[in-house]
Amino acid sequence: MTDSTKDVHQKFAEVLEALGTNAYQLSKRVGLNSPDKYYKIEKGQVKPSFDTLAEIVALYPQVNVNYYFKDGVPMLEGPMASQQTTPHNTNLAALRIKHLEQRVAMLEAQNQELTAQLFGQ
Predict the structure, then answer these.
(1) Residue ranges of the chain with pLDDT lower than 50?
(2) Tell me, what's the pLDDT at 3?
(3) Domain range holding 104?
(4) pTM given for the model
């Protein structure tokens, strides 16, 4: 199976396997009482949020965050993978900015909706 035919759930499971960890161990490492969040991602029941992927990259900096979003990029960076010409932190920062912009737009829309409901009564 090539990267282009893998969905984010399969890639998530592969990353855990490559790191030598599992949903339970990851949940304990991030301080969760239950591994359900990660099990559901692995099983394809829910998609991982950007924040979840960012948690993994923060704990395991060798994980190439682009692996989740793009086809044909290596899963791991640094000595465990081929050298990259684009710095990982730059890509992660750009993704975080995009994610935050989307959240701000969503919150602004919700604010307008709630304001309309409040003053419309």
Answers:
(1) 1-4, 80-88
(2) 45
(3) 3-120
(4) 0.59
